């Protein structure tokens, strides 16, 4: 009984933590959508970004409901001011592309891979339903990054993104792997949505190698700096 209480407390803390990530994502997509309008991005891509911001708030609700069910108190729903991910050269259009690629092509693609793994591990119905619903949306969110990149590729040089891959990966891996509270290898917790860090890391590295890097390379963005960053940051897995 005590063990179950402990397990639920850890699951609750994890889902409460995720609500914050959903609020940050909503703020980022809102800012990206506004910037896309300013830089006359394709209407369909702007719609996807607005829809993504809306979806992230629904994800907040779903994660908050799970947190409460496991006895945790999620942070209140409020608008956040997510720190911009900076390309750093003062060019607004490039900055927007940087953020769309960082959020869509990188973060959301990795999120999809992690959610697939979480769905496989889920042993609780509400956890499985929540993960399935969020996964369906995250697939769309990653598409918005790829769609914007494809559209921009027709008009501007997108290869400058190659040099920024280490910074993008550092931000994303921090959020997806290292910022999440550490959980030891625990199958019961994995069933409630808490994949062990080593498993999350393995999934993320495989998704980068199999999906993100080849995808960027198709647009002429050399993934070499990203590959090297990955190998130096995560030697045991990166050395494969
Ligand atoms: Fe989300
Ligand atoms: Fe998302």
What is the topology?
Layout: H1 2-38, H2 43-69, H3 92-121, H4 125-153, H5 165-178, H6 187-191, H7 197-217, H8 224-233, H9 235-238
Helix pairs in contact: 1-2, 1-3, 2-4, 3-4, 3-5, 3-7, 5-7
Task: Using brief descriptors, characterize the structure shown.
240 residues, single chain, binds fe (ii) ion, mainly alpha, 9 helices, Ferritin
Radius of gyration (CA) equals 18 Å
Looking at the structure, the CATH topology is Ferritin
Bound molecules: fe (ii) ion
CATH class: Mainly Alpha
Main sheet makeup: none
- End-to-end separation in angstroms reads 42 Å
Mean pLDDT: 90
Give the overall form: globular
Name the CATH superfamily classification: Ferritin, core subunit, four-helix bundle
Briefly note the structural class of the backbone. Answer: mainly alpha
Number of domains: 1
Helix content: over 70%
Q: Which architecture name does CATH use?
A: Up-down Bundle
The percent range for strand residues is under 5%
Q: Would you mind describing this structure in some detail?
A:
- The chain is an all-alpha fold and about 240 residues long.
- It has a single domain, classed as Ferritin, CATH 1.20.1260.
- About 75% of the residues lie in helices and about 0% in strands.
- The chain has nine helices and no strands.
- The longest helix is centred in the N-terminal third of the chain and has 37 residues, at about 1-40.
- It binds fe (ii) ion (FE2) (2 copies).
């Amino acid at each position: 009984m005590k063990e179950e209480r402990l397990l639920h407390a850890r699951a609750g803390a994890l889902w409460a933590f995720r609500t914050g990530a959903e609020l940050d994502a909503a703020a980022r997509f809102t800012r990206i959508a506004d910037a896309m309008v300013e830089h006359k991005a394709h209407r369909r891509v702007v719609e996807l970004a607005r829809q993504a911001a809306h979806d992230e708030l629904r994800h907040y609700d779903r994660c908050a409901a799970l947190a409460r069910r496991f006895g945790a108190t999620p942070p209140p729903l409020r608008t956040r001011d997510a720190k911009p991910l900076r390309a750093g050269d003062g060019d607004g259009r490039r900055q927007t592309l940087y953020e769309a690629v960082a959020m869509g092509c990188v973060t959301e693609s990795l999120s999809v891979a992690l959610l697939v793994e979480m769905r496989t591990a889920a042993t609780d119905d509400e956890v499985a339903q929540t993960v399935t619903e969020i996964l369906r949306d995250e697939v769309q969110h990653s598409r918005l990054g790829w769609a914007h990149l494809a559209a921009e590729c027709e008009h501007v040089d997108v290869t400058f993104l190659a040099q920024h891959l280490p910074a993008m990966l550092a931000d994303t891996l921090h959020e997806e792997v290292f910022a999440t509270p550490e959980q030891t290898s625990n199958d019961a917790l994995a069933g409630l949505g808490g994949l062990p860090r080593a498993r999350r890391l393995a999934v993320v590295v495989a998704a980068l190698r199999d999906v993100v890097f080849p995808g960027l390379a198709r647009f002429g963005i050399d993934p070499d700096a990203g590959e090297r960053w990955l190998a130096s940051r995560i030697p045991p897995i990166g050395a494969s």
